[in-house]
Amino acid sequence: MNYKITGYKPEKLFHFFEDISAIPRGSANEKAISDYLVAFAEERNLWYHRDALFNVIIKKPASAGAKEKPAVMLQGHTDMVCEKLAGVAHDFTTDPLDLIIKDGVLSANGTTLGGDNGAAVACMLAILDDDTLTHPALECVFTTQEEIGLNGAEALDKSLLSARTMINLDSEDEGIFLTSCAGGARVNCRFPMKKQELTGVRYEVEVSGLLGGHSGGEIHKERGNSNCILGRLLWKLSEKMPVGLVSADGGLADNAIPRQTKAVVVVEEKDAESLEQQVAALAVELGDELATKDP
Length: 295
Hints:
- By secondary structure, this protein is α+β, with helices and mostly antiparallel strands.
- The protein has six helices and twelve strands.
């Protein structure tokens, strides 16, 4: 599909992206970004609707020369995945993102950028703000809690919308249109557990330094998953010796590939040296396996 956007102003898009990057907007923390969207609409005398889940719809009438065209809905979500590197002092509930530009690439300093789906939010705002564009009636839909289950989209009052054509802007590649969507599944597992007091040598084992990534957009790149790697290590150890698991914790979001996982284990003193050897051996093994995918 070939298309052309006349009068496209990328600087306007990045202006709005910078604005929304200053607003904390993790999933289920979207009131502030919805306030921004409502103020945007009021300043431009645009029709808007906000619901209890902080979904926002903003409508703009068709421009001259396109009034006979059917309405089009543009859609994106306002929430973002809140991930950060270990040791980065950033509070996603209060702190603005620290944007940096290096070699012409925009990123955030030590945290996720929120381009998913801030790019869509900024794009819709840039279009709504531009009175020089020729366009049909627009219905811009900003949904919430997408990253934790499409909750905003599910709760949205669809009766407020008339468009029969929707362009979802939550995609990966500019200039490419997709006509289908991947699905996902959430599984809750319960394992029987027996607690007991143990004596022996206590170890903290950590898997870290992985690239991570989005569980949808980068799952095919075969990067290391710290949760899976730790599970693999514990399985290997349990085949060699009795292992008491004190705690295990890893991953920050269910749609992000885990980069860092920790466990505390207890083994008998006679097995301590063997544990260290097993950990070292698996580290070498993983180094070979991930040499090209996750160096």
